[in-house]
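Long-time lurker, first post. I've been practising inverse folding by hand and with some scripts of my own, and I keep getting stuck on stretches where the structure tokens seem ambiguous. Below is the full token string for one chain I'm working on. Before anyone asks, I'm not after the true native sequence, just a reasonable design that respects the backbone. If someone could post their per-position residues I'd love to compare against what I wrote down in my notebook.
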């Protein structure tokens, strides 16, 4: 931390070892290349009530939120239409394949898979709840290249006006 602070203020050390550490830190920072899927992605999902699974068991739920991809790691905050907040964690493979777990109140609630594209800056996939195996689908689009910040909450608010997947009006 002190090395970084010295570098930011333009000061340098007369200690050759410290100067070498500063140089190494600068080189590493300059060579750090972001993962091609890094950024903020708006996500909208909906339970799919198919394959004979009744709406009474799985509900008719939609959810909206923000996925953050940073260094192949996935984090997300998703709120369903009933107001329940879920978090998600997972990974992004080099080819854009997503593997994630949605978490509610500290428990694994659903598993999600899918694929992102940098050509179209979109993605889509499926999920299923781990208790009732209720199916669902999700779609996403890239909304920013920056990593998540406290401003993500304001982006999340703007997402709440979007139409859910499969809703025609």
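-- Answer (accepted) --
I ran through it position by position. Result:
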């Amino acid at each position: 931390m002190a090395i970084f602070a010295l570098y930011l203020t333009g000061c340098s050390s007369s200690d050759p070892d410290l100067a070498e550490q500063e140089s190494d830190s600068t080189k590493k920072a300059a060579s750090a290349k972001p993962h091609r899927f890094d950024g903020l992605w708006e996500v909208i999902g909906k339970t799919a009530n198919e394959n004979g699974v009744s709406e009474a068991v799985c509900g008719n739920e939609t959810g909206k939120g923000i996925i953050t991809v940073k260094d192949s790691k996935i984090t997300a905050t998703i709120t369903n239409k009933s107001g329940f907040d879920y978090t998600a964690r997972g990974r992004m493979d080099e080819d854009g394949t997503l593997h994630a777990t949605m978490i509610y109140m500290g428990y694994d609630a659903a598993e999600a898979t899918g694929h992102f594209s940098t050509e179209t800056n979109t993605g889509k996939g499926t999920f299923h709840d781990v208790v009732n195996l209720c199916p669902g689908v999700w779609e996403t689009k890239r909304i920013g290249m920056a990593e998540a910040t406290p401003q993500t909450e304001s982006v999340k608010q703007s997402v709440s006006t979007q139409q859910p997947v499969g809703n025609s009006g």
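A couple of notes from the structure itself: The chain has a mean pLDDT of 75. The chain is about 20% helix and 40% strand. Happy to go over any region you disagree with.
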